[in-house]
Every structure is written in structure tokens, then in C-alpha cells.
Amino acid sequence: MADYTLETEEGRREALRRMLTIREFDSTAGDYFADGEIPGFVHLYIGEEAVGVGACAALEPDDYIASTHRGHGHCIAKGLDPKLMMAELFGKQDGYCNGKGGSMHIADVDSGMLGANGIVGAGPPLATGAALSIDYDDREQVAVGFLGDGAVAQGQVHEAINLAATWDLPAVFVVENNRYGEGTPVEEQHNVDDLSDTAGAYDIPGVTVDGMDVTAVAEAVEEARKRARDGDGPTIVEAETYRYRGHYEGDEQPYRDEDEIEKWKEQDPIDRFSELLVDRGELTEEELKELRDEIEAEIEEAVEYAQDAPLPDPSEAYEDMFAEMPPEIERFASQARADGGSLGGDRR
Amino acid sequence: MTRVGLIANPAAGRDIRRLTGGASVVDNYAKRRVAECVLEGLAVVTEPPDVAVMPDRSGIADHAVSEAPDDLAVERVEMTVEESAADTRRAAARFRESADAVVVLGGDGTTRDVALEIGDVPLVSVSTGTNNVVPTPVDGTVAGAAAAAVATGAADADAVTDRHGRIDVRADDVNGEKRLTGLAAVEITDRSFVGTRAVIDPSELVGGVVSRAHPSDIGLGSVAGCLEPLAPDALGGVALRLDDPEATARSVSAIVAPGMTATIGVTERDRLEWDEPATFDVSDVVVGADGERELEVVDATVEMTPTADGPRLVDADAALGAAVEAGALVREGPLLEER
Question: Which GO terms describe its molecular function (chain A) (predicted)?
Fold first, then answer.
């Protein structure tokens, strides 16, 4: 049984909760990044919530996902804890990767989350590898590789999908087409109308669905998952979606105008899904407000937790990097351990 | 001057049924080629009609204009493009006022969108969609030639067209009245959401109304057709109520979606007159039109009524046959002695 499924009222409520959590988490992350409290870069998933949540609603808890640089939404959709995620964004010891990964490298293999990734198009090779391991060990899982529209033309994506297709591996590739590869419109990057048309090159099915509709994404990924589990190989599911914020926080976005953003907001995935649940009599406006308040408090708590958590100890700079530390790294690690205390300072 | 409208829907034939069933994929390159064939076909008559093409962002119209035969006047319709079904409807509304015949490239969904706006303008519907009951798999060149024959009057439109039926749906649920129209069929599926629109699991079909029935009419029309065919231009429709074949006295093996056959239990079959509604009381379902889930309804009475207000569809073979009889395809050269 999946973590949550759109088949039940309870599951639908959970899907809505996760979409709202993603939005609140990312809005908050944007604010703290602007204040300079979060180091590095953040790429926000706001507007695309239906894709991650829809896809994960179609999965079983032990299925794998491999994410992108815009990974917060996938993490929350897969059930990761916003507190530990926020701590990771703040670069703190309590984060998923002990504060050494940050926004673009949240991973939690125990939850089936194989990692966000700073390299465009690096998710599909991980998914193909995970799918190969599933196949090899005869397990009942699937691996989902998320990728953006820009990644579709990356060499490694082609290699990953080609091998998964050739070996009939239990993989699903979910293309989040948010219309822009950084600042370049999708039409200026690809010669096909629908990015799912690339599936023809691998002799696998490719479908394009409304990525602002969580029910459509879930249904397509569910069918793709069935196909993968039946031994028929991977499927490309393209979800047409839109990011409301810039490519990264601070992006001035000269490539699009406010009218376009507003037009997409009319299709807002959270509004659409919550209205659907209200129409069905499963949710009242009051309950929706309560849910929003609850999530707001939860994310506020996550921020406090992250702010209060210690920074990783500099003496451990080389820990958590390798399954087995290579000898040539070991000497840097020992040096760090030896110098550790002196670099400590205020570790809050 | 006579005029033919061309509507090629870039979004037809691209839905999830190519994953869930065996639906064929019609890519936009194929549609460009079909559009090119249509224009070539239009030029077959002595005085070809002017052509107006619905604009799109997939290059189908642009390609058609640039590749059109030299002796054909082709222009794009001046209209905004939303990249949705609204484009098809808007173009059809224009053609209702300005065209003598219209060629549509798409499936049942596209043809339905055109039918809602086109009025009495004769329609040549060429199958480039997924669930094709109404459009025919006629070659684009033949479709173009047939449209030219009708538009120029070489073929008498009344003699070579049939009026198709349609089914109007009205649902009163907790949120008020909802409406929907289907051409060949409207069907109720026991599923909560529109989702990807396709009918994925045949056992979820609860019932519906068809305006025509034949085992080859993919979808609910096939289910009805297995019991007794109903010609596309026959009067009225058929209402069906379905159930698990284990629980019914009679069941049929039907083609319920492209690449998908199923044994379906039929609890009730009622022949309907024009304007005679069939009603269904439902709790949590989706009502679809022509094989695509469209409308979510909760705790509702759904009324489905066949009406005689569908499109006038051109029989391409008959149109060209009539053109031959009118001599429209023969050019008389100068007599030998006059040379």
C-alpha cells in the first residue's frame, strides 16, 4: 500500500497536505535565503507541487526516486521530514546530510530518496542504476527519475533512458516541463512539440499530462509503474507545469513577463485540487484554512529547529563523503581532525 | 469565391491511451503531411476554393501555407491562439460564417469541438486522433478533393452528407448544473477524477447513451453494437446500463478503447427516440464524451438525451462520385481539328 493514494479520502487529504507543505516550505526557504540565513543557492518548486506529489502518490513507500536541483518538492512528496530538510538548507549538523549537502543535495536512502542533484540530468542515470539493482535482486520496486525540460537534451539522460529501455528495467522517467531551461524557452531548446515524443527513440511509450492536475499525474505514473512492474520497461511521463519563481532565487527573469505567470497561476495546482475536494464535500474552506495554519506552524518550527541546530564540526569535514575513505583523502581528514577545535568558533 | 476551412488540432491523438491501450501516436509531422495532402486535394477541381487555415503553435498551419500548391490561395485565420480546445471552437465559429466546407484533422474530440460551432457547414472529418468513431481514416488528399467538390457545388451537399446525431448531457449535482456534449457516445465511469481522461479500466464503465452503434465503434458504441447495430444517421440513440458480466444474464465482448477489448455485462438496453432522455442516478463518477472522461459529478442525476443536431458529415467517396457525374474532374482540351 502506498504512503498515500488519491483513491481514498484520507489519501487525498494527505496529498493536499503535502502540496501545501511544499509551498510553505519553499516560500519560507525563499525568505530566509533572501535574508542571507541560507547559504548557497535555492531553486524553488512553487507552482510544480502537483508533479512531485502526483508522482509519489502512485508509488509504494520503498520505491526509489532520484531528484533534480529543484528537489525540495520531491523530498516532501516522498515523505521526508521538513525539519531535517530545513536544517540541511541551513547547513546544520542535524540536516539529512549533516549540513554538508545543502538545498541541492538532500538525500535519504532509507526513504527511497536517492538525492537531489546539482547536475542537470543526473537523476535519470541514478534511477536507471537503482532500477538495475531492483531487477538484479528481483525486488518489487520501481525507480523514478525526475528531470526538467532542459535535461531532456542532455547526453547522460539519453544514455540512462536507452539502457533502461533496452534492458526493460523497472524505471519511470518524469519530465517536469516548466517551460524554461533556466532562462531559455522550451521551444528554443527542443525540436519536438511534446517532450514525451522523445520516447519514440527508445521504443517506449511517452505521454504528456497536465502537470497542474495532481490526479492526472498520479494516474499516468500509476500506469507507468504497472508497466514497469510487469517487466515491460520504462515510460516517459511529461508533466506540463510552471514554476512561479525564478530559476533560482534572485533570478531577474528577463525572459518572461508577469502576465504569463498570472495566466499559469489561474491553473494553480493547490487551488484546483482543494476546490475539487471542497466540491466533493470532503473538505470545507474552514478545514483548508486550519490545514494551512497547521502547516505554517510546522514550517516555522522547522526553521527554529534549523536555526538552533549546531553547524557540523569542521573536524568532520571529510566524514560522510565516502562509504570507505580512500587513503589519499585520509591524510586531509586526519589534518582536519587535528585542526578541528581551532576552527570551531560559535557553531550556532 | 468559394472557401474551404482547414482545422488541424495539434493536440489530437496524443493522450495517455498510447500507454494504457494500443492507441497509435499521430505526431505533428504526420499531421503536417496530412494537411499538405488536403491542400493538394483541394486543388484538384478546375476552380479551386480559397483556403483558410486555423493557426497553431506547432507549425502545422505555417507548413500548410508555405507548402501549398501555387494555384491555391491559402491564408491563416486571424485569431488568437490559446493552445486549447478553444482554438478549434473559435476557428469553427469563424468558418460557420465564411466557409462552404470544412476539413478537420483530429479525432472524435476535435470533431465534437468543431461540431458545436460549425452549424450546417459540411464537414470532412479525417482521423488523426485516438478514439475515432466519427472521423474516417480517409487519405488527406481524398478528403481535400471531396471538400473541394462540395464547396464548389460540383457535388450537391445534400446528396453527399449525412446528419450525425449528438448526445446532450445535463447533470445536477451538489454544485449545480453541469453540461456536456458527445457525438457518438457519452459514458459514465466509476472513477472519481477526470485525471488523464482515458477510460483505463473497462470494468469501471457503468453505462451511458450512444447515437450510433456497431462492434467497430470503439467505446460504448461497440458495446451497444454487439447487441444490435445502429447506423450513424439512424434516428435516436441507445441507452445502456452495465455491470460485472458475472452478475448479468447477458454480456458482450466489445472493443472498449484502442487496443483494449473486454467482456461487459449489460443489464439494460433501451432504444431512445430523438429528444428522449435516459437518466442515471450516480454517487461519485466521471461522465465522459466519446471515450474521454470530462466531468466529475457527485450525488447527481445525470440526464442524457440524443438529439438530431450533430454535424453534417461528408461521405468522401460519394462526393467524388458526384463530382465525376458533374464532369468536374475532366478538363476538355481543344478538339484535334482546331489545333
Answer: pyruvate dehydrogenase (acetyl-transferring) activity
